[in-house]
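Recall that a protein's primary structure is simply its ordered list of amino acids. Everything else, from secondary elements to tertiary packing, is in principle encoded there. The following example makes that idea concrete.
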Amino acid sequence: MKKTLALSTLTLLISFGLPLVAVPAAAQQPAGGQQAAGGPQYKSRAEYDAATAMSKETDPQKKISLAQDFLQKYADSDFKEAAYVAMIQSYAQLGDLAKLMDVTQQALQAKPDSLDVITASCFFFPLLYKPTDPAKDAHLSAVEANAKKGLEVVQKLQKPAGATDEQFNQNVKARRAILNGAVGFVALQRSNFADAVAPLKAAAEDNPNDIYANYRLGTAYLYSKPPDYDNAIWYLARADDLAKAAKGPDAANIDKFFNQVYSSRHGSDQGLNDVLTQAAASPAPPAGFKVAPPEKPKPTGNKMLDAFNDMVFPLKAGGDTAQKVWDGLKDQPLELAGFVNSVEKGSDPGLYLVRISMDQAKASGSYDVELKDSSQAGVANLKAGDPVRFAGKIASYTATPTFVLVVDNGKINDDDLAAAGANKPKAPAKPKRKTTG
Protein backbone atom coordinates (compact mmCIF):
# COMPACT_ATOMS: atom_id res chain seq x y z
CA MET A 1 0.00 0.00 0.00
CA LYS A 2 1.28 3.37 -1.02
CA LYS A 3 1.01 6.72 0.66
CA THR A 4 0.84 10.01 -1.18
CA LEU A 5 4.11 11.84 -0.65
CA ALA A 6 3.09 15.31 0.46
CA LEU A 7 4.18 18.12 2.74
CA SER A 8 2.42 16.36 5.60
CA THR A 9 5.03 13.61 5.28
CA LEU A 10 7.83 16.11 5.72
CA THR A 11 6.03 17.67 8.65
CA LEU A 12 5.76 14.27 10.29
CA LEU A 13 9.45 13.65 9.87
CA ILE A 14 10.30 17.03 11.36
CA SER A 15 8.00 16.25 14.29
CA PHE A 16 10.16 13.21 14.96
CA GLY A 17 13.06 15.53 15.68
CA LEU A 18 14.99 14.74 12.54
CA PRO A 19 17.06 17.69 11.32
CA LEU A 20 15.94 18.34 7.76
CA VAL A 21 18.67 20.82 6.96
CA ALA A 22 17.66 23.32 9.59
CA VAL A 23 20.59 25.37 10.83
CA PRO A 24 21.23 24.25 14.44
CA ALA A 25 20.66 27.10 16.86
CA ALA A 26 23.91 26.40 18.69
CA ALA A 27 25.83 26.87 15.47
CA GLN A 28 24.12 29.96 14.11
CA GLN A 29 26.30 32.95 13.35
CA PRO A 30 25.72 35.58 16.07
CA ALA A 31 25.35 39.20 15.08
CA GLY A 32 28.81 40.00 16.45
CA GLY A 33 30.45 37.31 14.30
CA GLN A 34 31.35 34.97 17.21
CA GLN A 35 30.18 31.37 17.12
CA ALA A 36 28.66 29.52 20.05
CA ALA A 37 31.06 27.25 21.87
CA GLY A 38 30.76 23.46 21.40
CA GLY A 39 28.88 21.50 18.77
CA PRO A 40 29.24 21.85 15.02
CA GLN A 41 30.92 25.03 13.82
CA TYR A 42 30.90 27.11 10.66
CA LYS A 43 34.33 27.98 9.36
CA SER A 44 33.27 31.08 7.49
CA ARG A 45 30.40 33.44 6.95
CA ALA A 46 30.14 32.15 3.36
CA GLU A 47 29.65 28.59 4.62
CA TYR A 48 26.96 29.78 7.01
CA ASP A 49 25.15 31.71 4.27
CA ALA A 50 25.30 28.70 1.92
CA ALA A 51 23.83 26.40 4.59
CA THR A 52 21.10 28.91 5.38
CA ALA A 53 20.14 29.27 1.71
CA MET A 54 20.03 25.48 1.37
CA SER A 55 17.84 25.21 4.45
CA LYS A 56 15.33 27.82 3.28
CA GLU A 57 14.96 26.65 -0.31
CA THR A 58 11.62 24.95 -0.97
CA ASP A 59 12.01 23.95 -4.62
CA PRO A 60 13.48 20.39 -4.57
CA GLN A 61 15.53 20.77 -7.75
CA LYS A 62 17.08 24.02 -6.53
CA LYS A 63 17.66 22.50 -3.08
CA ILE A 64 19.57 19.61 -4.64
CA SER A 65 21.73 22.03 -6.63
CA LEU A 66 22.47 24.10 -3.51
CA ALA A 67 23.35 20.98 -1.54
CA GLN A 68 25.68 19.72 -4.26
CA ASP A 69 27.42 23.10 -4.42
CA PHE A 70 27.72 23.13 -0.63
CA LEU A 71 29.36 19.69 -0.56
CA GLN A 72 31.79 20.72 -3.31
CA LYS A 73 32.79 24.04 -1.77
CA TYR A 74 32.80 22.97 1.89
CA ALA A 75 34.01 19.38 1.76
CA ASP A 76 35.27 19.54 5.37
CA SER A 77 32.13 21.21 6.76
CA ASP A 78 30.56 20.03 10.00
CA PHE A 79 27.24 20.21 8.13
CA LYS A 80 27.87 17.74 5.33
CA GLU A 81 25.22 15.41 6.76
CA ALA A 82 22.65 18.20 6.56
CA ALA A 83 23.44 18.64 2.87
CA TYR A 84 23.00 14.93 2.19
CA VAL A 85 19.71 14.87 4.12
CA ALA A 86 18.56 17.87 2.07
CA MET A 87 19.10 15.87 -1.10
CA ILE A 88 17.37 12.78 0.32
CA GLN A 89 14.36 14.89 1.23
CA SER A 90 14.32 16.53 -2.20
CA TYR A 91 14.63 13.29 -4.17
CA ALA A 92 11.78 11.92 -2.05
CA GLN A 93 9.64 14.91 -3.05
CA LEU A 94 10.52 14.24 -6.69
CA GLY A 95 9.72 10.52 -6.33
CA ASP A 96 13.20 9.47 -7.48
CA LEU A 97 14.10 6.42 -5.39
CA ALA A 98 17.20 5.50 -7.39
CA LYS A 99 18.87 8.86 -6.76
CA LEU A 100 17.71 8.88 -3.14
CA MET A 101 19.47 5.54 -2.64
CA ASP A 102 22.59 6.74 -4.47
CA VAL A 103 22.86 9.83 -2.27
CA THR A 104 22.28 7.74 0.85
CA GLN A 105 25.14 5.41 -0.02
CA GLN A 106 27.43 8.36 -0.86
CA ALA A 107 26.70 9.90 2.51
CA LEU A 108 27.30 6.63 4.36
CA GLN A 109 30.59 6.10 2.58
CA ALA A 110 31.69 9.42 4.04
CA LYS A 111 30.20 8.66 7.48
CA PRO A 112 28.88 5.09 7.96
CA ASP A 113 27.07 5.84 11.23
CA SER A 114 25.22 8.97 10.07
CA LEU A 115 21.94 8.47 11.92
CA ASP A 116 20.23 11.46 10.29
CA VAL A 117 20.96 10.10 6.81
CA ILE A 118 19.93 6.55 7.70
CA THR A 119 16.70 7.59 9.41
CA ALA A 120 15.61 9.96 6.65
CA SER A 121 16.33 7.37 3.96
CA CYS A 122 14.47 4.62 5.85
CA PHE A 123 11.50 6.90 6.42
CA PHE A 124 11.05 7.77 2.76
CA PHE A 125 11.87 4.36 1.28
CA PRO A 126 8.44 2.71 1.82
CA LEU A 127 6.77 5.74 0.24
CA LEU A 128 8.71 5.37 -3.00
CA TYR A 129 9.33 1.62 -3.30
CA LYS A 130 7.80 -0.17 -6.29
CA PRO A 131 7.79 -3.98 -6.62
CA THR A 132 8.32 -3.55 -10.38
CA ASP A 133 11.60 -1.65 -9.94
CA PRO A 134 14.41 -3.65 -11.64
CA ALA A 135 16.76 -2.60 -8.81
CA LYS A 136 14.33 -3.56 -6.04
CA ASP A 137 16.46 -6.40 -4.63
CA ALA A 138 19.53 -4.19 -4.31
CA HIS A 139 17.47 -1.42 -2.76
CA LEU A 140 15.85 -3.78 -0.25
CA SER A 141 19.23 -5.18 0.80
CA ALA A 142 20.71 -1.71 1.21
CA VAL A 143 17.78 -0.41 3.28
CA GLU A 144 17.77 -3.48 5.50
CA ALA A 145 21.51 -3.15 6.18
CA ASN A 146 21.24 0.59 6.81
CA ALA A 147 18.25 0.22 9.15
CA LYS A 148 19.99 -2.45 11.22
CA LYS A 149 23.10 -0.26 11.40
CA GLY A 150 20.93 2.64 12.49
CA LEU A 151 19.39 0.58 15.28
CA GLU A 152 22.89 -0.18 16.57
CA VAL A 153 23.73 3.54 16.54
CA VAL A 154 20.50 4.43 18.35
CA GLN A 155 21.39 2.02 21.17
CA LYS A 156 24.60 3.97 21.78
CA LEU A 157 23.06 7.45 21.76
CA GLN A 158 23.80 9.65 24.74
CA LYS A 159 21.46 12.36 25.91
CA PRO A 160 22.85 15.75 24.78
CA ALA A 161 23.38 18.53 27.26
CA GLY A 162 20.30 20.68 27.69
CA ALA A 163 17.83 18.00 26.57
CA THR A 164 15.28 16.62 29.01
CA ASP A 165 14.80 12.89 29.49
CA GLU A 166 11.39 13.14 27.83
CA GLN A 167 12.76 14.94 24.78
CA PHE A 168 15.59 12.44 24.40
CA ASN A 169 13.34 9.41 24.82
CA GLN A 170 10.82 10.75 22.31
CA ASN A 171 13.55 11.27 19.74
CA VAL A 172 14.96 7.78 20.32
CA LYS A 173 11.54 6.16 20.02
CA ALA A 174 10.72 8.09 16.85
CA ARG A 175 13.96 7.06 15.16
CA ARG A 176 13.67 3.48 16.39
CA ALA A 177 10.11 3.23 15.05
CA ILE A 178 11.24 4.34 11.59
CA LEU A 179 14.23 1.97 11.55
CA ASN A 180 12.31 -1.08 12.82
CA GLY A 181 9.51 -0.20 10.43
CA ALA A 182 11.98 -0.29 7.54
CA VAL A 183 13.31 -3.71 8.59
CA GLY A 184 9.76 -5.04 8.77
CA PHE A 185 8.82 -3.45 5.45
CA VAL A 186 11.73 -5.20 3.73
CA ALA A 187 10.66 -8.54 5.20
CA LEU A 188 7.11 -8.00 3.93
CA GLN A 189 8.34 -7.26 0.40
CA ARG A 190 10.26 -10.54 0.47
CA SER A 191 7.15 -12.38 1.71
CA ASN A 192 8.99 -13.26 4.93
CA PHE A 193 5.87 -12.50 6.90
CA ALA A 194 6.81 -14.24 10.15
CA ASP A 195 10.16 -12.40 10.15
CA ALA A 196 8.35 -9.09 9.71
CA VAL A 197 6.29 -9.44 12.90
CA ALA A 198 8.98 -8.63 15.51
CA PRO A 199 10.36 -5.42 13.94
CA LEU A 200 6.91 -4.15 13.00
CA LYS A 201 5.61 -4.85 16.48
CA ALA A 202 8.55 -2.90 17.91
CA ALA A 203 7.77 -0.03 15.53
CA ALA A 204 4.10 0.00 16.57
CA GLU A 205 5.05 -0.05 20.25
CA ASP A 206 7.36 2.95 19.81
CA ASN A 207 4.82 4.82 17.70
CA PRO A 208 1.38 3.32 18.46
CA ASN A 209 -0.45 5.93 16.40
CA ASP A 210 1.40 5.16 13.17
CA ILE A 211 -1.24 3.99 10.69
CA TYR A 212 1.18 2.07 8.50
CA ALA A 213 3.14 0.38 11.27
CA ASN A 214 -0.14 -1.06 12.54
CA TYR A 215 -1.39 -1.92 9.05
CA ARG A 216 1.83 -3.71 8.09
CA LEU A 217 1.94 -5.54 11.41
CA GLY A 218 -1.61 -6.74 10.79
CA THR A 219 -0.72 -8.02 7.33
CA ALA A 220 2.41 -9.73 8.68
CA TYR A 221 0.29 -11.66 11.19
CA LEU A 222 -2.33 -12.39 8.53
CA TYR A 223 0.00 -13.90 5.95
CA SER A 224 2.30 -15.76 8.33
CA LYS A 225 2.04 -19.55 8.21
CA PRO A 226 -0.04 -20.40 10.10
CA PRO A 227 -1.88 -17.07 10.13
CA ASP A 228 -2.51 -15.37 13.45
CA TYR A 229 -6.02 -14.10 12.73
CA ASP A 230 -6.63 -12.56 16.14
CA ASN A 231 -3.56 -10.29 16.14
CA ALA A 232 -4.02 -9.59 12.43
CA ILE A 233 -7.57 -8.37 12.95
CA TRP A 234 -6.64 -6.28 15.99
CA TYR A 235 -3.83 -4.35 14.30
CA LEU A 236 -5.76 -3.94 11.05
CA ALA A 237 -8.66 -2.58 13.10
CA ARG A 238 -6.35 -0.10 14.82
CA ALA A 239 -4.91 0.99 11.46
CA ASP A 240 -8.44 1.36 10.13
CA ASP A 241 -9.51 3.59 13.02
CA LEU A 242 -6.33 5.71 12.85
CA ALA A 243 -6.62 6.15 9.09
CA LYS A 244 -10.26 7.24 9.27
CA ALA A 245 -9.54 9.63 12.14
CA ALA A 246 -6.67 11.19 10.18
CA LYS A 247 -8.69 11.19 6.93
CA GLY A 248 -5.60 9.67 5.32
CA PRO A 249 -5.33 8.92 1.59
CA ASP A 250 -5.53 5.17 2.19
CA ALA A 251 -8.38 5.22 4.70
CA ALA A 252 -10.98 3.75 2.33
CA ASN A 253 -8.67 0.94 1.16
CA ILE A 254 -7.63 0.03 4.71
CA ASP A 255 -11.26 0.01 5.83
CA LYS A 256 -12.28 -2.24 2.94
CA PHE A 257 -9.41 -4.66 3.60
CA PHE A 258 -10.15 -4.85 7.33
CA ASN A 259 -13.83 -5.52 6.64
CA GLN A 260 -12.94 -8.31 4.21
CA VAL A 261 -10.51 -9.96 6.62
CA TYR A 262 -12.87 -9.72 9.59
CA SER A 263 -15.91 -10.99 7.69
CA SER A 264 -13.95 -13.80 6.08
CA ARG A 265 -12.62 -14.97 9.43
CA HIS A 266 -15.83 -14.53 11.45
CA GLY A 267 -18.29 -15.47 8.73
CA SER A 268 -20.12 -12.13 8.94
CA ASP A 269 -19.49 -8.54 10.00
CA GLN A 270 -21.28 -9.06 13.33
CA GLY A 271 -19.11 -7.62 16.13
CA LEU A 272 -16.86 -5.71 13.71
CA ASN A 273 -17.65 -2.29 15.17
CA ASP A 274 -16.96 -3.55 18.69
CA VAL A 275 -13.47 -4.61 17.62
CA LEU A 276 -12.87 -1.21 16.01
CA THR A 277 -13.93 0.53 19.22
CA GLN A 278 -11.62 -1.63 21.34
CA ALA A 279 -8.66 -1.19 19.01
CA ALA A 280 -9.14 2.58 18.96
CA ALA A 281 -8.76 2.70 22.73
CA SER A 282 -5.71 0.45 23.12
CA PRO A 283 -2.49 0.00 21.11
CA ALA A 284 -2.35 -3.74 21.90
CA PRO A 285 -5.02 -6.44 22.19
CA PRO A 286 -6.12 -7.44 25.69
CA ALA A 287 -5.16 -10.87 27.00
CA GLY A 288 -7.35 -13.56 25.53
CA PHE A 289 -8.64 -11.45 22.64
CA LYS A 290 -10.30 -13.76 20.10
CA VAL A 291 -12.35 -13.43 16.95
CA ALA A 292 -14.52 -16.52 16.68
CA PRO A 293 -14.23 -18.45 13.42
CA PRO A 294 -17.37 -18.86 11.30
CA GLU A 295 -20.01 -21.36 12.30
CA LYS A 296 -20.44 -24.40 10.11
CA PRO A 297 -22.64 -23.36 7.18
CA LYS A 298 -26.27 -24.39 7.29
CA PRO A 299 -27.93 -26.11 4.32
CA THR A 300 -29.36 -23.65 1.80
CA GLY A 301 -31.29 -26.05 -0.41
CA ASN A 302 -28.88 -25.35 -3.28
CA LYS A 303 -27.00 -28.66 -3.64
CA MET A 304 -24.03 -27.15 -5.46
CA LEU A 305 -23.65 -24.28 -2.98
CA ASP A 306 -23.99 -26.63 -0.01
CA ALA A 307 -21.38 -29.01 -1.46
CA PHE A 308 -18.98 -26.12 -2.00
CA ASN A 309 -19.54 -24.71 1.49
CA ASP A 310 -18.95 -28.09 3.12
CA MET A 311 -15.77 -28.62 1.10
CA VAL A 312 -14.12 -25.27 1.86
CA PHE A 313 -15.33 -24.70 5.43
CA PRO A 314 -12.31 -26.49 7.01
CA LEU A 315 -9.98 -24.45 4.81
CA LYS A 316 -11.52 -21.22 6.05
CA ALA A 317 -11.09 -22.30 9.68
CA GLY A 318 -7.32 -22.67 9.26
CA GLY A 319 -4.89 -24.63 11.44
CA ASP A 320 -3.88 -28.29 11.20
CA THR A 321 -7.33 -29.37 10.08
CA ALA A 322 -7.16 -27.04 7.08
CA GLN A 323 -3.81 -28.47 6.05
CA LYS A 324 -5.03 -32.07 6.29
CA VAL A 325 -8.15 -31.30 4.28
CA TRP A 326 -6.10 -29.42 1.69
CA ASP A 327 -3.69 -32.33 1.30
CA GLY A 328 -6.69 -34.42 0.27
CA LEU A 329 -8.19 -31.81 -2.08
CA LYS A 330 -5.18 -30.50 -3.96
CA ASP A 331 -4.96 -31.61 -7.61
CA GLN A 332 -8.32 -33.38 -7.41
CA PRO A 333 -10.91 -32.97 -10.21
CA LEU A 334 -13.85 -30.70 -9.47
CA GLU A 335 -17.26 -30.34 -11.12
CA LEU A 336 -19.74 -27.74 -9.87
CA ALA A 337 -22.21 -25.17 -11.08
CA GLY A 338 -22.48 -21.48 -10.24
CA PHE A 339 -22.95 -18.04 -11.76
CA VAL A 340 -20.51 -15.93 -13.74
CA ASN A 341 -19.19 -12.98 -11.78
CA SER A 342 -16.72 -11.67 -14.35
CA VAL A 343 -14.55 -12.73 -17.29
CA GLU A 344 -11.10 -11.29 -17.90
CA LYS A 345 -8.40 -11.92 -20.46
CA GLY A 346 -5.52 -13.99 -19.15
CA SER A 347 -1.81 -13.28 -19.46
CA ASP A 348 -1.53 -15.23 -22.74
CA PRO A 349 -3.55 -14.67 -25.93
CA GLY A 350 -6.70 -16.76 -26.10
CA LEU A 351 -6.76 -17.54 -22.37
CA TYR A 352 -9.40 -16.26 -19.97
CA LEU A 353 -10.05 -16.04 -16.24
CA VAL A 354 -13.64 -16.86 -15.37
CA ARG A 355 -14.65 -15.81 -11.87
CA ILE A 356 -17.66 -17.66 -10.51
CA SER A 357 -19.97 -17.01 -7.55
CA MET A 358 -21.62 -20.05 -6.05
CA ASP A 359 -24.49 -17.89 -4.82
CA GLN A 360 -26.30 -15.79 -7.39
CA ALA A 361 -27.02 -13.17 -4.74
CA LYS A 362 -23.32 -12.31 -4.31
CA ALA A 363 -22.36 -8.78 -5.24
CA SER A 364 -20.30 -7.94 -8.30
CA GLY A 365 -16.61 -8.37 -7.57
CA SER A 366 -17.26 -10.97 -4.85
CA TYR A 367 -16.63 -14.50 -6.10
CA ASP A 368 -15.78 -17.96 -4.80
CA VAL A 369 -13.98 -19.71 -7.66
CA GLU A 370 -11.41 -18.51 -10.18
CA LEU A 371 -11.33 -20.72 -13.26
CA LYS A 372 -7.89 -20.30 -14.87
CA ASP A 373 -6.60 -20.87 -18.38
CA SER A 374 -9.92 -21.33 -20.11
CA SER A 375 -9.24 -21.32 -23.86
CA GLN A 376 -12.66 -22.33 -25.11
CA ALA A 377 -14.19 -20.41 -27.97
CA GLY A 378 -17.15 -18.45 -26.69
CA VAL A 379 -15.89 -17.84 -23.13
CA ALA A 380 -15.66 -14.15 -23.96
CA ASN A 381 -19.43 -14.16 -24.55
CA LEU A 382 -20.17 -14.99 -20.92
CA LYS A 383 -21.58 -12.15 -18.90
CA ALA A 384 -22.22 -11.52 -15.20
CA GLY A 385 -25.11 -13.59 -13.87
CA ASP A 386 -24.96 -16.34 -16.50
CA PRO A 387 -25.49 -19.81 -14.95
CA VAL A 388 -22.60 -22.15 -15.81
CA ARG A 389 -21.51 -25.69 -15.12
CA PHE A 390 -17.74 -25.94 -14.91
CA ALA A 391 -14.96 -28.44 -14.33
CA GLY A 392 -11.22 -28.42 -13.70
CA LYS A 393 -8.47 -29.37 -11.27
CA ILE A 394 -8.22 -27.87 -7.76
CA ALA A 395 -4.96 -25.92 -7.78
CA SER A 396 -4.80 -23.57 -4.81
CA TYR A 397 -6.80 -21.26 -2.58
CA THR A 398 -6.52 -17.96 -0.77
CA ALA A 399 -8.13 -17.63 2.63
CA THR A 400 -7.61 -13.89 3.03
CA PRO A 401 -8.86 -11.29 2.68
CA THR A 402 -11.72 -13.34 1.17
CA PHE A 403 -11.81 -17.03 0.33
CA VAL A 404 -11.23 -17.95 -3.33
CA LEU A 405 -10.69 -21.46 -4.72
CA VAL A 406 -8.42 -21.52 -7.78
CA VAL A 407 -9.15 -24.16 -10.42
CA ASP A 408 -6.71 -24.93 -13.27
CA ASN A 409 -7.57 -26.19 -16.76
CA GLY A 410 -11.02 -24.73 -16.41
CA LYS A 411 -13.76 -25.86 -18.77
CA ILE A 412 -17.26 -24.42 -19.11
CA ASN A 413 -20.05 -26.74 -20.20
CA ASP A 414 -20.48 -26.46 -23.98
CA ASP A 415 -24.26 -26.07 -23.76
CA ASP A 416 -23.83 -23.14 -21.36
CA LEU A 417 -21.33 -21.52 -23.73
CA ALA A 418 -23.71 -22.00 -26.63
CA ALA A 419 -26.51 -20.39 -24.64
CA ALA A 420 -24.28 -17.43 -23.78
CA GLY A 421 -23.40 -17.02 -27.46
CA ALA A 422 -27.03 -17.16 -28.50
CA ASN A 423 -27.86 -14.42 -26.01
CA LYS A 424 -25.03 -12.20 -27.18
CA PRO A 425 -26.42 -8.90 -28.47
CA LYS A 426 -26.22 -8.66 -32.23
CA ALA A 427 -24.31 -5.81 -33.80
CA PRO A 428 -26.59 -3.23 -35.38
CA ALA A 429 -26.97 -3.59 -39.14
CA LYS A 430 -25.05 -1.10 -41.22
CA PRO A 431 -27.28 1.39 -43.01
CA LYS A 432 -27.55 0.84 -46.76
CA ARG A 433 -26.15 3.48 -49.03
CA LYS A 434 -28.56 5.36 -51.15
CA THR A 435 -27.92 5.16 -54.83
CA THR A 436 -28.38 8.06 -57.12
CA GLY A 437 -29.84 7.55 -60.52
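Residues 180 and 199 are 5 Å apart (CA to CA). The radius of gyration is 29 Å.
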